[in-house]
Each structure stands twice: as structure tokens, then as C-alpha cells.
């Protein structure tokens, strides 16, 4: 699959001496939804700002649809739409006027039919003549996306697209993003709602302390780094794990009313049979069993907290 964005050995050191990015290498494929995750201060905004031509890199190169973002700024920038986290619009402008003006900023000829399509796709058509000050927060967020799409970009950056919106609107926006991808737009999103990445992304990249920790397909990432837990709900509380069970990866939970067993679901022998057999042999009664697989959020927290063995991920 061809890369629509190619980042090579990108670094950024600010005048204060702070290094926000350290030799970042990243390829984003055409037509995918790519989720960029990282804690606050990890370098997400700096990376996006450099790719979008807002911040100058200290070293390295970035290509957007084959155009160098420094040497061929205008062509590179014309390929990119950016929806920033902060909503900034002219409160007294109309929805139609604001989106049309954004298109004109990129030198695109007037195209009322295209603007109408964008507004209809974003459920803004009935608000086309409304002043922006009259829109709800969710509608203003949709307007920011319309403005970013006004010049028909091939690449769309969404920085925290659903921050501060209700769950129903969030679901609507997820569906809208999928439709954009079906139309051939490459979507790169940053989000604090990790279920958003789990729900939508084809691939996930994790950045921490200015470095890309890993990039992988979401499903492969969850299979390879995901863990499963079996919770055994006991009939009577335990003060400590009995000696016959001490060699198993068990922890006590719920004030001694549950045993939690960690296992690798990809292994041929999970050890669950041995656990249940040992419980039966020693007359340890239980009321229920419950299993769960670690989510993308669990994996993200673990990677950021403990790091990752990159060689192991590559194997």
C-alpha cells in the first residue's frame, strides 16, 4: 500500500532547548484511518503541526502526497485539511460564507455544488444561512470539518474531533469519518477517547517523549500485546492465595472474594484447566467465572508506562 504521508528522521527542537520530536519516522497509507495516540506533551500536536506546515522542523523531511512540505509548501498544504482541537470561527459569519471563504483561501474556484454536498454530508445544510454564533458546540465542530474539507483535500487531520461532545454526536461523527474514508480521504486522528481508536482505526501509532513507540495494525496489536483475564468469583473469601495455587499467575481481588488469572489466549495451553482442576481438588468452591480481554486502552497505558520491546514487536 502506498504512503500518502512519509515522515523521515523528523526532529524538532524549540528555542528553549526543549526537544519535542526525536528522529520520527512514520508512513501513513493512502485511504486508511490512522490513530495517533500519546499522553499530553508526547509530541502529537508538534508532529501534526509540522506535517500541516504550521511549525518548521529542525531536521528531517515530510512528504504529503509526494510533495515536500517545506520546498513545495503550497502543493503539499493543498492536499491537507486540518480540524484543530480548538474551535476558532468568525461568530458573525454564516455557515455557507465561512466554508466558501475557506475554499477560496486555497485558490480553488467557486463550486457551490461541492460546498452543498459537504454541508449535506455533515448535516449542516439546514444551517447554511445561520450565523455561527447560533450553532451548538457539536454543530460548530461539524463546521470545522466542513471548512477543512472545503478545498477537497486527500488527507484530513482530526485533532481531538469529539472532545466535549456527547456520546450520540460522537457516534455520528465516527460514522461520518468512515464515509470520508470510503470516498478516498485518508484520516489521521488524535484522541483521548481510546475507544474511538479501537472502534475506527485501521492502524495505531503511539508516541511518547517525542518518539514513536510503535506503529501496528490495530487487530495485530491487540492480539500480540493484549492479555486475557479469567476472574473466579469465590463462594467464600480468602485471606491469601493457598499454597497449591502459589505457582500460578493469580491475584486476589474484591476483598478476597475473587481470584484473577492472567493468561495468553494465543498459547495452546492456557492453564485454565489446571487452575480449575486444582480448585476442585482442594475443595475451593466458586460461584461464577468471567473472562475479559485487555482493551486498546489497557495496552496503551502499559506501553506508555513500561515501554515496549520493539524487536519483540517486529518478530
From TrEMBL:
Keyword flag Ribosomal protein: no
Domain ABC transporter, chain residue ranges per copy: 5-234
MF-aspect GO terms: ATP binding; ATP hydrolysis activity
InterPro entries in alphabetical order: AAA+_ATPase (IPR003593), ABC_transporter-like_ATP-bd (IPR003439), ABC_transporter-like_CS (IPR017871), ABC_transporter_ATP-binding (IPR050763), P-loop_NTPase (IPR027417)
Record key words, sorted: ATP-binding, Nucleotide-binding, Transport
PROSITE patterns xref list: ABC_TRANSPORTER_1, ABC_TRANSPORTER_2
Protein name: ABC transporter ATP-binding protein
Species whose genome carries this gene: Alcanivorax hongdengensis A-11-3
